[in-house]
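Complex record, two chains
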Amino acid sequence: MTESISALSIVGLSKRFGSTKVLDSVDLTVNYGEVHGLLGENGSGKSTIIKILAGLHICDSGTVSIKGKKVDLPMSASTRALYRLTFVHQNLGLIPSLTVTENMLLDNLAVPEVFGYGFNLKREHKAVSEIFQGLRIDINPRSLVSRLSQLDRTRIAIARAAWNVGLVELGTKKTRGILVLDEPTASLSKDEASTLFKWVRQFANFGGAVLFVSHHLEEVLALTDRVTIIRDGRKVITQTTKTLSKEQLIHLILGRPICKVSSSAWVKHEAEPLVKVKDLRSETVESISFDVNKGEIVGITGPLGSGVDSIPYLLSGASPALSGTITLGTQTVELRVMSPYRSVKMGIALIPANRTREGIVGSLSIAENIELPFRTYGSNWFSDKLLRSKAFEKMRIYDVRPLNPKYETGKLSGGNQQKGIIARWFSTNPLLVLLCHPTQGVDVGARQQIYSSLKALSPKAAVVMLSVDYEELEQLCDRVLIIDKGRLITELTGEDVSTEVIASACLEII
Amino acid sequence: MKKFDSSPIQQKDQIPRDNNSEMLLEPHGEQLKSLMFKAEPWVLVAVWVITVILFSVLRPQIYLTLANWANMLASQASLVVLALGLLIPLTAGEYDVSIGSMAGFSAMVLAVLNVNGHIPLLIAAAVAVAGAAVIGLLVGIVVVYFGIDSLIVTLGVANILSGMTLWISGSNTVTGVSGSLVNWTITNRLFGIPYEFYFGLLLTVGVWLFLEHSATGRRMLIVGRGREVARLTGIRVSMLRINSFVAAAVLSSFAGILIAGTSGSADPSNDLTLTLPAFAGAFLGATTIRPGRFNAWGLFVAVYFLVSGVTGLQLLGANTFVQDIFYGGVLILAVIFSQLTKGRQPLAAAT
């Protein structure tokens, strides 16, 4: 605060979506020469701030100043280029079908003022290889990004940001760039992350400003000078990092003291579990094993990029696994050769995460969506009337409204679409149900109905529920498995299945 | 994310449970809209009837004769069959632009075997159909396993087939196809209309049953509209996509056999001119009977509407080129029309 002109200054930023205030008059100041951490739970509003800065959302009120000058919102690409404001988002923003060089140039190509209008590919390749040499990156600028590993892609995204922001010219002149890192380490190894941090630190030492968004508290503690904590759309505090401990940070993020995991071991049921997953490996997870009993609801959760999202897809054969087996009753299947066709036949039901892309066909009727995949008719031939009457029954049981099987599914509310998907699967009496974020984008009323449908089904089946809504996990689950960096970290049982403990356990992951 | 969704959804949830009460609550404009909605399936049928009445009034002595109608109904039977073949890959979300060439190739295979090779008609026909099925299978495998856009693959196949047709025929029209084929397609009549028409009608019923009353047909529709949804619900997407090309090839070869029967010969040059009218029929058909879906009866109506119009215009003295302009224009208009009818896009084939 001692420096007269701050790099980035946000004052009174507010934003509402519908009737919900996601940002309520947030202030945030990042100075030149500092690494500033931005912390908060999922849904606290921190990503909305980043999106407003990046021009993806328009704020309702508030101002943003750079170098002490007010800038127009939403910020244009040329404004960002002028002030050297650069982002590294978690999805990296690379185009896989283009070469490394083309990707390195992406941001600048959008701004003719910076790039000019001519283009000499040879010259650009050479420029990029020089940058890579300086950063000690060993990637051929001519290769396609689609051929590179996730690690190399992350490196390129960060190198690009470093280049745009002026980090590469370090030593030649004082930089005045602003670098926004939005969860950049989710897919990085520890070594990679520490290399990145060295660059970031160096950049700040030479006078650059960094806004660092992460859920890895250790990283935040190690790297940042100050932190701002956001909770429920409001700024809680801005404080010097040195004065804070990890426990205090968690307390500030959650708004309540940390809950320790009580170490009461899970009491194994006498009966053989209905579902056994052994040594599941894929590109996203490493050696995950767990059991689920009949009548049990097991929650799985973890931070962004932990790989937990892929587990239901791997178990149902929707994504390819490298190895591992699933045992369902007496059948054991290699997950390497699992397919959705096979898993559906075995009695595994997947309720996918992306409802509109993977769950329903919006342009078709509710009846057709509920009766998918049309295997319960005894014969291949059926009438529209039979289809509708079967669907109608299920719509009544699972309360899908409007109660009209001909209605176009895309016009339903999110809650009713989800109830339709639940009706499709629960009515087939599945043995294993894999639920992915079952109540995301679902209103309160529909949510309660989905919960009660799940409770009703539960005694007959094993349920694995992926969710990042900790209250939901507490309310429904018998056990919760916490996954990070593709590994099973903790298993919470009994008393520990509570919002506070799950949240604490997720945050303590390093 | 989930929080801000809640309020509009709650409002939406108050949509009345009962369909009838929903109607009653609609304001006046909505009532008109729902009337239009109900009339939509029959618009093209009405337009067809009006067209027929118009030309009957203008040229009663020629247009309104059994001979003219028998000719119109029979001459379009092969186009109906060809478009039915196209309907299946379109439903599964794939394009097949090789259908016309496939029909021409099958007709030529049959003619060459039967006329030059003196092979009995039924065996020659069986070889033509089986050959088409094998080519369809190969197309499907290339599209699915190499992940290549079906438009590109079938465009290439169309040219290959045209070339092969010229090759096996020596670039000459092959005449003298067995009289019994000619008898069964064009000479023998029921109620004054050649058998050919009834073959088209029968296959229309068959494709209608398949697409709308069989589980396999519905699965194909799901594959076309939401491939990822289909895959995750355990539908064997690759198999259905491949089979859709096989079905298209087989139906195209049926169309080819009808063409050979109609003229008693096989012409190596007319194959490419068949594809576009089939597309026009399929897309125009998707605006009627079951609007928003490629459907067999819609196609049937569309094909006969098109020929009624073209024949009428020609009777009024229009040149033969009017046909090309008419079919091309109708294809584009049909697609625009189905895009305008909000929310229902038969063009789901794009991805």
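Note: Confidence is low (pLDDT under 50) at residues 1-27, 342-351 of chain B.
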